[in-house]
Design brief:
The structure is a single chain. The chain is of the alpha/beta class. It has 2 domains: 2-149, 3-Layer(aba) Sandwich (Rossmann fold), CATH 3.40.50; 158-272 and 295-325, no CATH class. It is built from 16 helices and 11 strands. The chain has helices spanning 12-22, 39-49, 59-71, 82-90, 107-115, 125-142, 151-159, 162-167, 201-204, 214-222, 224-237, 275-283, 315-325, 329-345, 351-362, 373-389; strands spanning 2-7, 28-34, 53-56, 77-80, 96-99, 119-122, 145-148, 176-183, 244-248, 254-260, 265-269. The chain has a 7-stranded parallel beta sheet with strand order 4-3-2-1-5-6-7, sandwiched between helices. Strands 9-8-10-11 form a 4-stranded mixed beta sheet, with helices on one face. It starts with a strand and ends with a helix. The structure holds nicotinamide-adenine-dinucleotide and magnesium ion. Residues 150-152, 229 line the site of magnesium ion. Nicotinamide-adenine-dinucleotide (NAD) is lined by residues 8-14, 35-37, 100-102, 105, 123-126, 150, 210, 212-213, 216, 274. Catalyzes the NADPH-dependent rearrangement and reduction of 1-deoxy-D-xylulose-5-phosphate (DXP) to 2-C-methyl-D-erythritol 4-phosphate (MEP).
């Protein structure tokens, strides 16, 4: 029986994870569930999954959830805040952590899971983009198992030789030439660029192929999501930026590929439903049903592939540049992006200003190496403040 903590249980990935877990009560039990805002939804999940611990954002929410759980006669312990998130991620009673908080808020608990040597199912790409080698070092020192949930990285993991993928690094002789990271191109792949300044948050969050949280949906619309994924792939699989290639594939049937020196390309196919990579990571190295049908190949009319249009999606190049510069720069890119997306969703800036705001911040970042998580968190705060100072009030 694997005992699981789900960080971000009320989100899109959290709910998909619980859907898979519920199909396999003989294999998985829930140790802890966490949520930031939706206390009612978390109370419902506690009734369904009976976790030992539930974590919320504030003391007031703790009181509210306690009341709901006592009324349902549930013994779940309720706590709140970042240290509580770290505790449930590192607890002895937990074997596996689904890291599905969105953004930098997930860094501390995901890192706590890494330091405690847990099996980590990584959805929270921002945590890895920010902390890069510090996170990977923590994984290697503790002997934690890091399994990618992001659909592209999960596909790549499946297409790499087992001993390459598991060690999260390239070693000689495997013949990997490059990674081909597929991207749908999002909702604005063929929209007239001259109308980008009038794109609304509602338009930006409605993705053609995937149902996801608001932040990652906007990232998909700007293709910053793919940029963050290039950096994520670098840390997970040890290849430099120029050997991680983005390919536009609007149908989202192939979730990424690995190209080998002998001319072979291996791909993973599946319906666009996150329960597929979640089930893969949960059961690895075994396989379990995910609740998703496999692709009906006879119904596929077309599989198309294009090069990305960098004039349309300038954020992608920013991410390659950040990876190339290294040190603090990817964390700066991530911080500026989180602030910019939030400002766009709150209608403070226009869609095309997400890029110009991040670009302006990037020009102010002095590249330097980061020696510790404490230093990283200080820099992250500083860059967020700088980004906010550039937003018209
Ligand atoms: P979401 O917005 O649906 O859910 C986010 C979760 O994080 C919620 O449970 C929320 O309560 C929690 N949360 C938000 N802010 C928090 C804070 N400050 N402190 C503690 N908890 C907080 O997001 P999502 O779409 O499920 O994405 C989660 C992560 O997975 C992101 O990093 C995203 O990039 C990644 N991811 C998502 C998908 C997808 O299909 N949704 C695919 C690949 C990767
Ligand atoms: Mg992805």
């Amino acid at each position: 029986m694997q005992r699981i903590t789900i960080l971000g249980a009320t989100g899109s990935i959290g709910m998909s994870t619980l859907d898979v877990i519920e199909r396999h009560p003989d294999r998985y039990s829930v140790y802890a569930l966490t949520a930031y805002r939706k206390v009612d939804e978390l109370a419902d999940l506690c009734r369904r999954f009976r976790p030992q611990v539930a974590v919320v954002g504030t003391a007031a929410q703790t009181a509210e959830l306690n009341q709901l759980l006592r009324a349902a006669d549930l013994p779940t312990e309720v706590t709140y805040g970042e240290s509580a998130l770290c505790n449930v991620a590192a607890a002895d009673d937990c074997d596996t952590v689904m890291a599905a908080i969105v953004g930098a808020a997930g860094l501390a608990p995901t890192l706590a899971a890494a330091r405690a040597g847990k099996k980590i199912l990584l959805a929270n790409k921002e945590a890895l983009v920010m902390s890069g080698h510090l996170f990977m070092d923590a994984v290697h020192v503790s002997g934690a198992t890091l399994l990618p949930v992001d659909s592209e990285h999960n596909a790549i993991f499946q297409c790499l030789p087992t001993n390459y993928a598991e060690r999260n690094q390239q070693s000689a002789g495997h013949g990997v030439a490059k990674i081909l990271l597929t991207a749908s191109g999002g909702p604005f792949r063929s929209r007239d660029i001259d109308t980008f300044s009038s794109i609304t948050p509602e338009e930006a969050v409605s993705h053609p192929n995937w149902v996801m949280g608001r932040k990652i949906s906007v990232d998909s619309a700007t293709m910053m999501n793919k940029g963050l994924e290039v950096i994520e792939a670098h840390w997970l699989f040890g290849l430099p930026g120029p050997r991680i290639e983005v390919v536009i594939h609007p149908q989202s049937v192939i979730h990424s590929m690995v190209s080998y020196v002998d001319g072979s390309i291996l791909a993973q196919l599946g319906n666009p439903d996150m329960r597929v990579p979640i089930a893969h990571a949960l059961a690895y190295p075994e396989r379990i049903s995910s609740g998703v049908e496999s692709v009906d190949l006879t119904k596929i009319v077309q599989l198309a592939f294009f090069q990305p249009d960098h004039a349309r999606f300038p954020c992608l190049k920013l991410a390659y540049d950040a990876l190339d510069m290294g040190g603090i720069v990817p964390a700066g890119l991530n911080a500026a992006n989180e602030i910019a997306v939030d400002a766009f969703l709150n209608r403070k800036i226009r869609f095309n200003e997400i890029y110009s705001l991040i670009d302006r911040v990037m020009n102010k970042i002095v590249p330097k190496e980061i020696g510790s998580i404490e230093e990283l968190i200080e820099e992250d705060k500083r860059i967020r403040k700088l980004t906010i100072s550039f937003i018209p009030s």
